[in-house]
Amino acid sequence: MTFSLKPHYSAVVIGGGQAGLSASHYLQKHGIDHVVFEKKTVAHKWKNERWDAFCLVTPNWQCQLPDHPYDGDDPHGFMVKDEIIAYVDRFVKKVNAPVLEGTSVTSLEKIGDLFRLSTSAGALTADSVIIATSLYSAPAIPRAAERVPDDILQIHTADYRNPGQLPDGAVVVVGSGQSGCQIAEDLHLAGRKVHMVTGNAPRCARFYRGRDVVDWLADVGQYDITIAHDGMTKKKHDTNHYLTGRDGGRDIDLRKFALEGMSLYGRMEGVSGGRMLFEANLKDNLDNADRVYNGINALIDRHIAEKGIDAPPASVYAPLWEPESEPTELDLKAEGVTSIIWATGFSPDWSYVGLPIFDGTGYPMQRRGVTGIDGVYVLGLPWLWTWGSGRFLAVGKDAEHVVNHLAGHLEAAAQPALKQAASA
């Protein structure tokens, strides 16, 4: 869509990913004039920050962007990278949002009843703002990386594409969340020696008692639980469970990898003198991941029993491998390490937001995207409202809720002026 930037809009959306485009979809339905600012290009992360073997972790049927559900012939499969990009591109074309790509928002502040935004395309004002830039703005790499020997290649998961891009030799993967574990598997399957540095990430079975675990959890109602439920407020900081949709889907079991030659370590403590140092918590990390795995399966067992469902028998995962010791250091040169992949997540960038909407952890204070400042909203964050809030499953539902609230805010703000005009 080609257009000229106006000096004022009823609404401004910051971020042209799935959340920002979903917001634009509903803003258009309400007939609300708006603009979407995208720092890079629409759907940039899907196209430029995923590795070649990337695929969905949740089944295709969970792709539920607004008026754009998955329409392929494999709802219980897992789209690979090119298929995901095609799905998103069809959504982009369908929404036809008023997006200014390559445009950064450098400041957002409140001036009287309006919001003033400074952007790389110029300044403007708005009656309302939706911040849809997610938590994944910039790769987060620990300062310890500065002490890694210069002859070792270091990249973040955002820049990893395939084993062939790395020099010959062993690879250290730091971080056992979804990306770290899937990339470690990618390297392992390619025959590379992998040193896996674990953390507190939980894991989940892919299939259990005859079905995908995601299907069971949907039936149980896990995807309907909101952040407002007791004990759920900390969920927004949780690490995602690791498993994969690769080759039709399977568990990721680091213990199995260890039996096949992968070396495992506890959480990284630092780097010193050419050595990577670790906490002695490998066993705890593996045990805690398995505890979550078995706990999810037990939840499914209870559901099956309560509903009298005919299903294959229950089972409990038993460790395939136990560490004989707790390794506390890795001599990078002696072990032939030539590459380190930092699977250490991302950091949000809200530095431009000059509004008091954040809590002590830097997370926006909100209720399903509605902040404490009238006319300011956030979208696309993990556990904004439900488990699916930051994903294709529920980002559209959250966007609809936010835009409905925004429309009500604009209508209420316009009432005094309408009454004054009517009485004149």
Automatic annotation (TrEMBL):
InterPro entries: Auxin_biosynth/cation_transpt, CHP04046_FMN-dependent, FAD/NAD-bd_sf. Keywords: Oxidoreductase. The keyword Repeat does not apply. The keyword Oxidoreductase applies. This is MSMEG_0569 family flavin-dependent oxidoreductase. It comes from Rhizobium mesosinicum.
